[in-house]
Every structure is written in structure tokens, then in C-alpha cells.
Amino acid sequence: MKNVFVMDHPLIQHKLTLIRDKHTGSKEFREAVKELAMLMGYEATRNLPLEEIEIETPLCKTKTKVLAGRKLGIVPILRAGLGMVDGMLNLIPAAKVGHIGLYRDPETLEPVEYYCKLPADVHERDLIVLDPMLATGGSAKAAIQFIKDKGATSIKFMCLIASPEGIKVISEAHPDVEIYVAAIDERLNDHAYIVPGLGDAGDRLFGTK
Ligand code: PRP
Ligand code: URA
């Protein structure tokens, strides 16, 4: 699929193994998720536009490049997306941060929205939506639609592990959205958990359950 970018850099794959391991505790899990977000953010921002400016080094004037184009925003899907925010902000400290609160109803598996606060100028920003897990795709599909309804026109989605089903849902519902992912796993189980996956990302990040 042309809009899906699987980031198989060795450092990313190594840290992914750490967070998949059920013996990894919350502290190490949180650290690895943060580092993964930074490594993936580095790749996902590879095509940011540059412009040439003139500066003066201690030796002479020279032409050199700085970031140009639209300002950036990151939008974690609560709760688990929060684990990826600091890693992204390490790379792009000036980015504004919006939040969308969604949880999957355990019975219907449908996303339920409980919070949304986005930067006022969301329509002028390039946005990267963050969530470690793309399972049925229901949460990400709803979150992206929500952001579009608020006026956003430039959106990427970054997750750590996706299911093939989730990728299909987002690609079909939002063909304009590029998906950055560290691994596409085999399948969903009967409870819509990704297999082999890493379990419940929110619980593992925050030590609940
Ligand atoms: C998890 C995960 C995604 C969602 C993915 O959140 O962080 O948001 O499930 O599943 P889907 O693709 O089938 O919608 P969860 O609903 O467990 O909420 P939490 O982050 O508050 O734990
Ligand atoms: N949400 C998670 O946290 N993990 C999964 O495997 C699926 C949805």
C-alpha cells in the first residue's frame, strides 16, 4: 500500500521486541515507547520542506537551510498515545499538542469519545496523530475524522503496532493519511487484541491492571 511506511530500522525493531516482552515492566516499557516515538518521528519528518537562508558563521556569510512550510502539531489519542508525546517533542519542541480522548467500549469495541482539545490553528498545521496500537482501526478512524471535522487538512498517523485489518480501515476511510508503523502483526484475536502484539498498551504504560 503506497501510504503505509513500515519502519524496520534495527534500533526500532530492537526496542519493539522490548515492549512486546511480557516481562518488561512499566518503567522500561514507557522509556522504550518514548524512544520508539523519537526514532519513528525522525523518519516520519524526513520530507519536511526546507528553505535556504543566509547566515554568518564566525568565518563568512553562507547560505544554509532551515525548516520551512507549515507548523507542526501532534495529537495523541488518550490514554496510550500520551506515551509517545515526549519522544516526538524531543524532536520537534515547538510543536503544539492537541488531545483526543477515546476508549474502546469493551462490549461493542466501538470507540467512545470523552475529550477533545486541539490547537486553535489546527487547520494551518501539519498534524501527526499518535497511538501505539491500531487494532480494529475504530479509534484512529474516529480520531482522524474528528480532527478533519475541526478543519485539519494535513494529517499523518503514527503507531507502533498495527493489524492488517486496522491498516485497511484507515487506508479506505482516510486515503489521504500516511500511516507510519514499526510492525504490522498477523491478526486480531476474538477480543480485537493484536496478535502477537504487546497486550493492552495503556495498561502497560501506566501500570493499571
Ligand atoms: C487502545 C489503543 C487504541 C485502541 C486501538 O486504547 O491505545 O486507542 O485501543 O483499538 P482499535 O483500533 O480497535 O480502536 P483503549 O481503547 O484500550 O483505551 P486506553 O488507551 O484508554 O487504554
Ligand atoms: N488496544 C491495545 O492496547 N492493544 C491491542 O492489542 C488492541 C487494542
Automatic annotation (TrEMBL):
GO annotation (BP), single: uracil salvage
Keyword Transmembrane among record annotations: no
Cofactor annotation remark: Binds 1 Mg(2+) ion per subunit. The magnesium is bound as Mg-PRPP.
InterPro entries (alphabetical): PRTase-like, PRTase_dom, Upp_B, UPRT, UPRTase/APRTase
Description of activity control: Allosterically activated by GTP.
Binding site for uracil: 194, 199-201
Pathway: Pyrimidine metabolism; UMP biosynthesis via salvage pathway; UMP from uracil: step 1/1
Cofactor(s) named in the record: Mg(2+)
Molecular-function annotations in GO: GTP binding; magnesium ion binding; uracil phosphoribosyltransferase activity
EC class (word): transferase
Keyword Transmembrane on entry: no
Reactions the enzyme catalyzes: UMP + diphosphate = 5-phospho-alpha-D-ribose 1-diphosphate + uracil
EC number: 2.4.2.9
Domain of life: Bacteria
Keyword terms, alphabetized: Allosteric enzyme, Glycosyltransferase, GTP-binding, Magnesium, Nucleotide-binding, Transferase
Binding positions for 5-phospho-alpha-D-ribose 1-diphosphate per the UniProt entry: 79, 104, 131-139, 200
All residue ranges annotated as the Phosphoribosyltransferase domain in the record: 6-208
Record-level GO cellular component terms: cytoplasm
Family from the record: Belongs to the UPRTase family.
Function description: Catalyzes the conversion of uracil and 5-phospho-alpha-D-ribose 1-diphosphate (PRPP) to UMP and diphosphate.
NCBIfam families: PRK00129.1 (NF001097), upp (TIGR01091)
HAMAP family to which the protein is assigned, alphabetical: Upp_B
Protein name: Uracil phosphoribosyltransferase
Source species of the chain: Thermotalea metallivorans
Classification of source organism: Bacteria, Bacillati, Bacillota, Clostridia, Peptostreptococcales
